[in-house]
Amino acid sequence: MMNGTGGIVTGFMTNILGFDSIYVARTHLAILIGLFIAIPLSTYLLFKRIYLATIWVVGFACYGMYHAILYFRFYPEIDSADFFGPFIFKGLAIGFLYPAASLYISENVPKPLGDSRMMSGVISRAVFASLLGGAFLGTFISNLNVQHKTGLSQQLTELNPMAKAQLNKNKNYYMLQGLSAWEAQKKAEKSLSNQTSQSAMMLAYKDIYLVMAALCFFPILVLLLFRLGRRPIGRVDVEPIPF
Predict the structure, then answer these.
(1) What crossing angle do the helices spanning 181-225 and 52-73 adopt, rounded to 10°?
(2) What is the pLDDT of residues 202-211, one digit of tens each?
(3) CA distances (Å), origin 19, targets 24, 46, 52, 188, 206
(4) On the chain, which terminus has fewer CB atoms closer than 10 Å, C or N?
(5) Secondary structure of the chain in the HEC alphabet?
(6) Which residue, 236, 226, 234, is CA-closest to 57?
(7) What angle do CA 204, 205, 209 make, to 5 degrees?
(8) pLDDT at 150 over 80
(9) What is the rounded CA–CA span in Å between residue 216 and residue 63?
(10) What is the pTM of this model?
(11) Model pLDDT for residues 96-148, shown as the tens digit of each residue
(12) For 233, phi and psi rounded to 5 degrees?
């Protein structure tokens, strides 16, 4: 779930905000910066037999910072540069959690079972994490979007002076384009509805990132309260990569 929000951000940047795909790809280089920092550091901590809890806490904290920063940066004038800093924290989180998780899965697994060790990692990360996490996030965002759109649509009445002024402004614009009063009214209503849809999606994303920030910091409390992971990684049999 924590990693799945990155794909949601990409879709939001291209489909909702209209960012160029090449510009979005350049923004994601920030994840690579975080990986370059975190993977050597996490490898050094594992080599020095540091407690697993230390690595888990740092990784979950980076994921929490990633979601918390995005929550505060989601506003109508958001720019692609605003995603650069959060993506560095995401790269740090991946660099701390993934190597430790891979070693934890393969701990004390003998070499003859290397294929099973690899498949257990693929199943746990690709199947359970990606598919179930993506399905949960997609359903949650869809429901939140419907709720926000319904709430915003209920405010588009004659009693709302701002909505009425915006509707009249749009109507006058379309009438200047040569449309009839009836056609201009329909176009103005559709334009206002589209603006409402984008605002509803913006609010849904803010909600999901606030929830995900809380979910990221929750494992830290569990680790500290129940004193979990207070041991170094055990013996791991590895084979050289067959280049």
Answers:
(1) 160
(2) 888 888 888 8
(3) 7, 40, 39, 25, 19
(4) C
(5) CCCCHHHHHHHHHHHHCCCCHHHHHHHCHHHHHHHHHHHHHHHHHHHCCCCHHHHHHHHHHHHHHHHHHHHHHCCCCCCHHHHHHHHHHHHHHHHHHHHHHHHHHCCCCCHHHHHHHHHHHHHHHHHHHHHHHHHHHHHHHHHHHHHHHHHHHCCCCCCCHHHHHHHHHHHHHHHHCCCCHHHHHHHHHHHHHHHHHHHHHHHHHHHHHHHHHHHHHHHHHHHHHCCCCCCCCCCCCCCCCCC
(6) 226
(7) 120
(8) yes
(9) 6
(10) 0.77
(11) 988 887 777 777 777 677 666 667 667 766 677 677 777 777 788 888 888 88
(12) -65, 145
Residue 239: which of 118, 131, 137 has the closest Cα? 118
- How far is the CA of 39 from the CAs of 91, 98, 138, 191, 222, in angstroms? 9, 9, 30, 48, 24
